[in-house]
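Person: At home tonight, work slowly through the protein below, taking as long as you need, and write a paragraph about the fold.
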Amino acid sequence: MNFNEGSEEPKKEYPNKSLFLAVCAACIGGTFQYGYNISVINAPTQYVQDFINQTWRARYQTGISGDVLTLLWSTIVSMFTLGGFLGVTIGGTLSVKLGRKGTLLANNIFALMAALLMGLSYPAGVFELLIIGRLFTGINAGIALCVQPLYLAEIAPTSIRGAMGMGTSVFITGGILTGQVIGLKELLGREEYWPILLSTTCIPAFLQLLILPWFPESPRYLLIDKGDEEGCKKALKQLHGMAACDDEREDIEKEKNNLTGLQAKKPWELFTDRSLRWQLLTIVVLNIAQQLNGINAIYFYADYVFRQSGIPVDKIPYVTVGTGACECITALTCGMLIECLGRKVLITGGYTLMCICCILFTLTLTFQDVSPIFPYLSMACVFAFILSFGLGPGGVTNILTTELFTQNTRPAAYMIAGSVNWLSFFFIGMIFPFIVLGLKQYCFLVFLVVCCSVGTYIFLVVPETKNKTFLEIQNEFLSSNKRKACSSDGAGTTLLSTSI
């Protein structure tokens, strides 16, 4: 398979320079934008609300009511989620028609339009441009989250596919951290700079447009989807070097032969394919859990915990930057560990640690006023929870979505996974305040149940995918389906041969 002759070592290799730069080029205008636009909107909250109030007064000669202001601000923020959902519903289709690289390049149109609209909103005195701009940033993020992991997985050698797939998580957390830092008052966090701050989303877009064209399209897309053997060979040589390209091409050829005559599937076709039911259920469960596991609650409570710990209000933004740095470091750590420990160990371990943190955080918040030490224990729980999330669920979920499907089903799988993720994001945004108000610190018991349930599901159902080709992973699921079918009705003995 992927072993050198007679050697026991599974090819310890690192991305060559061209491969590493291709990952950076894809990510800087991809999931980096997603992370950046999540965090950059927080710093100018008060300034944008003041701008809406001034614009309203100039238009209607009266001040805006508190309820309407809150509604408009909520609309600006939530447009990102709506845009993300729209983006992910078209991302998979675009990745088949334009290619992975072509879609990533075309996606920058939305980021540039968003930067232009949000930058012009203040001088034009039109706050509605912020709503449209945030919608475009969401579409950009939705397409990126759908297509970029596809590109990374398809250009990566099998032996380091997990580590390279972590580029998605590393750049998301890097984007969040960059947005937090740029939003500090020492940089663009002052009132006069907020339109510039929101329009800086154009910088990663320009960088990707300058760098990504120098790198090839996904070799798997070229050979399997387009039948371009020469283009595939050239892409593999550039990305993997002469020595490694033959092995990877052989793997792609095998997958192509197994998929002969099969077209790329639509999302609804995956739901009717019995051979994919466990893979589909797995990505749905993982993507719902990624939003409902309590990470949003931790960030919500972080401000309260930091204030209880005695940190001055004006210093809290700097501590918040520390949480972003914490998550970024764990994403990098996960990238280094994933090929050693495997996907299953990391994600199961991450959810187990999050369960422990939920219990401890509930206890420390409950006894917050008993002793001066409890606020500091709560702060430790905040960082521990973020570390646990970044070490497993935050990084491995996207990789598993890639690895559980083959070329003809993968784009549709990402559309389903992305749609579930964005809908869960919207859902938690809507009900989360009510959960917190109703249950207070005991809301973490709800998240404890989620983390515990998902960790158990992964342990029992999901196979280890480390160092396995996409076909080997698919066959492992098919074998499992066949055993279950045989035990239930004696049928299913031809699943393996007919479904690929």
About this structure: The chain has 24 helices and no strands. Confidence is low (pLDDT under 50) at residues 1-12, 487-500. The radius of gyration is 23 Å. The first helix runs from residue 17 to 28.
